[in-house]
Amino acid sequence: MYTLTQAQVDASVLTTADFPAFVDDPDALLDTPDDGTTYDPAACGDVLDGLEVVAADQTPSAVAHIGLSSDGAILGQDVSSYAAPFAESWVEDVAARIASCPTFAVGFSDGSQATATLSALEIPAYGDRSTAVRAVIAADGFELIQDLVLVTIGQVQVALGVGGIEAADPATLDQIVTTALAKLPPAA
């Protein structure tokens, strides 16, 4: 069973050395705090939360998060290792979550509103299982596009969010994912 220690997880996250055009940016992290954001329908908030933490019903034994940004582009990564196996159906579960809320309203604590649209994103097969989704958040004529790639290798999950005012091209997204996966230690 492939799992990682906290030291291995810490060493496996992307850094500015991997992508020198980026700088450390805690605002680019994938995790979103409970800041009073509302969703309509309300269940769609669970969709976004579920996309960020696939094994939300389990506590990771090791976890690390990073956030990087560069000229309007953001890159967030979570690496989590779990002691117990997680559901084999997680790819199908993510697809069902996306299908259940393809478009919904988002209300922010400052009173502003946005519309979120989720769609499946085709990617190469990575790790043991992988899936991806594109989230487009639109408000006041402005769009933020974020591609989220989820990869499982053994009991390790890697979540990568790549976003900005323009979608990442497939070659760039693939480079980010393959660079991130290459940082994981080999299975024993």
Sequence-ordered SSE layout with sheet pairings:
Blueprint (H helix, E strand, L loop, with lengths): L5 H7 L10 E2 L13 E3 L3 H9 L9 E9 L2 E9 L8 H11 L2 E5 L5 E8 L8 E11 L2 E12 L2 E9 L5 H13 L6
Antiparallel strand pairs: 1-3, 2-5, 3-4, 4-9, 5-6, 6-7, 7-8, 8-9
Helix pairs in contact: 2-3
Please describe what this structure looks like.
The chain is α+β, with helices and mostly antiparallel strands and 188 residues long. Helices cover 21% and strands 36% of the residues. It contains 4 helices and 9 strands; from the N terminus they run H-E-E-H-E-E-H-E-E-E-E-E-H. The chain has helices at residues 6-12, 44-52, 90-100, 170-182; strands spanning 23-24, 38-40, 62-70, 73-81, 103-107, 113-120, 129-139, 142-153, 156-164. Strands 1-3-4-9-8-7-6-5-2 form a 9-stranded antiparallel beta sheet, sandwiched between helices. Strand 5 (103-107) and strand 6 form a beta hairpin. Helix 2 runs antiparallel to helix 3. The longest helix has 13 residues, at 170-182. The protein is globular, with a radius of gyration of 16 Å. It starts with 5 loop residues before the first helix and ends in a 6-residue tail after the last helix.
List key phrases describing it.
21% helix, globular, alpha+beta, 188 residues, single chain, 9-stranded antiparallel sheet
* Strand content bin: 35-45%
User: What percent of residues adopt helix (DSSP H or I)?
Assistant: 10-25%
Low-confidence stretches: none
List the secondary-structure elements in sequence, H or E. Answer: HEEHEEHEEEEEH
Intertermini distance: 9 Å
Could you say which structural class the secondary elements and strand pairing correspond to? Answer: alpha+beta
Q: What's the helix count?
A: 4
Shape: globular
Question: Biggest β-sheet, characterized?
Answer: 9 strands, antiparallel
What's the Cα radius of gyration?
A: 16 Å
- Main sheet: which strands, in order across? 1-3-4-9-8-7-6-5-2
Report the average pLDDT across residues: 85
**What's the number of extended β-strand segments?**
9
